[in-house]
């Protein structure tokens, strides 16, 4: 019964998130249909993700290859999975094999990974894989992501040198305490403007994935098209207790 109560709470929380997304989008003069909500189930069981699916949601994300390859085969095939964060080249084949319905990788942060992913997608014979280039907008050494000054070069490599990847936009992960997110988000907006200018793209063709549980409304107000919501939907992360 307790598990059912938690699952019911997650569906209620999902609806509340969509309500907040709609309000934030309206404040920025946009429609809520312009903003994708990725429900991030990190550390959460398949049963809880299934409950969110049964409520009508189809876009889910995971941060660890080990989790997504374990969960995706147990869940419906029409889920659009996002892998979020730093992806190691040696995990690419595992990820593509286990998750044929992988919709997007949010986190290509260097040319070597982009080229490796491009070759792997080609060898699997699947349709081009959507990718976002991850930008380190906070300057923290612990964060993955390309330096903003190198962003255009990496996007060029993906767009012009990786025919099996579909460049879809930029993503960033702000500060953990959310104190500097306006600066982080502004940096990503500046990167998009530069990328679109150099490559002759409309800004509407370049997504911005920014905003998580603690700051997604502000991110939407600043132009985010993709927010990654975990704990606000699913509850706090449940990490194994250290023995």
Automatic annotation (TrEMBL):
<protein>
    <recommendedName>
        <fullName>Pyridoxal phosphate homeostasis protein</fullName>
    </recommendedName>
</protein>
<feature type="domain" description="Alanine racemase N-terminal">
    <location>
        <begin position="14"/>
        <end position="236"/>
    </location>
</feature>
<dbReference type="InterPro" id="IPR029066">
    <property type="entry name" value="PLP-binding_barrel"/>
</dbReference>
<dbReference type="Pfam" id="PF01168">
    <property type="entry name" value="Ala_racemase_N"/>
</dbReference>
<dbReference type="InterPro" id="IPR011078">
    <property type="entry name" value="PyrdxlP_homeostasis"/>
</dbReference>
<feature type="modified residue" description="N6-(pyridoxal phosphate)lysine">
    <location>
        <position position="42"/>
    </location>
</feature>
<comment type="similarity">
    <text>Belongs to the pyridoxal phosphate-binding protein YggS/PROSC family.</text>
</comment>
<keyword id="KW-0663">Pyridoxal phosphate</keyword>
<dbReference type="GO" id="GO:0030170">
    <property type="term" value="F:pyridoxal phosphate binding"/>
</dbReference>
<dbReference type="InterPro" id="IPR001608">
    <property type="entry name" value="Ala_racemase_N"/>
</dbReference>
<comment type="function">
    <text>Pyridoxal 5'-phosphate (PLP)-binding protein, which may be involved in intracellular homeostatic regulation of pyridoxal 5'-phosphate (PLP), the active form of vitamin B6.</text>
</comment>
